[in-house]
């Protein structure tokens, strides 16, 4: 009897939507700033998002950031646990990044109080972690049906190890997957074939016996098709003419689950 098919699946915007939590954290910081200073909360949030992104673009960071797929809002709140040597310099720099981001925003609104910058840094983290993380419709069902068919599922994701695990747990999905492979823990991210091969090795599977489900063309689709994996690409776009024949477009994880288990 052949081995059951393995499913590799992306986390952000595939299984879960974390953006409401990120927006809630920014909004809390905006309200806090508006209560302390004579500023418009929405304008404060707008500038925080912009300046947080700009401060993220330092000379040395892009190789690490792009390689491991780290978003700036994760830089504002996550701990980036893990023993990989790439993370040492990054973790050392994070407190400066957060202080600089909130400090620059405050300065723009005429405030140079470093304590308020630190307060905003802590508030952003606390509020983001307290906000609920929703599983996208159909995500839990896909994972449960895979479990019923004894198909191992490995979440493969780029980002902070502590943050990605927390989000999977908060969405109630952690008990439904076999494993989670995170770029900052293994030292390489999607679309590198090494990331996909690591995920497959966790469940003893091979590319030709597995299917990838994800929403990012550059990271999920290009990575999996390079290894010859069948891929379900969650997208609202039309298929580009040069798209690999092994890729099927689906509009949601719900639809992906239907195609996998109908
Ligand atoms: Mg994604």
Describe the structure.
The chain has helices at 19-36, 41-55, 61-68, 72-75, 86-108, 114-130, 139-148, 161-170, 183-186, 193-202, 217-226, 253-261; strands at residues 6-9, 16-17, 134-135, 153-157, 179-182, 210-214, 230-234, 247-250. By secondary structure, it is α/β, with parallel strands linked by helices. The model has no long low-confidence stretch (mean pLDDT 95). The structure holds magnesium ion.
Itemize the secondary structure elements and their pairings.
Layout (H helix, E strand, L loop, with lengths): L5 E4 L6 E2 L1 H18 L4 H15 L5 H8 L3 H4 L10 H23 L5 H17 L3 E2 L3 H10 L4 E5 L3 H10 L8 E4 H4 L6 H10 L7 E5 L2 H10 L3 E5 L12 E4 L2 H9 L1
Helix pairs in contact: 1-2, 1-6, 2-5, 5-6, 7-12
Which terms summarize this structure?
262 residues, alpha/beta, Rossmann fold, 2 domains, six-stranded parallel beta sheet, two-stranded antiparallel sheet, 12 helices, 8 strands, 53% helix, 12% strand, elongated, binds magnesium ion
Summarize the structure.
The chain has helices spanning 19-36, 41-55, 61-68, 72-75, 86-108, 114-130, 139-148, 161-170, 183-186, 193-202, 217-226, 253-261, and strands at 6-9, 16-17, 134-135, 153-157, 179-182, 210-214, 230-234, 247-250.
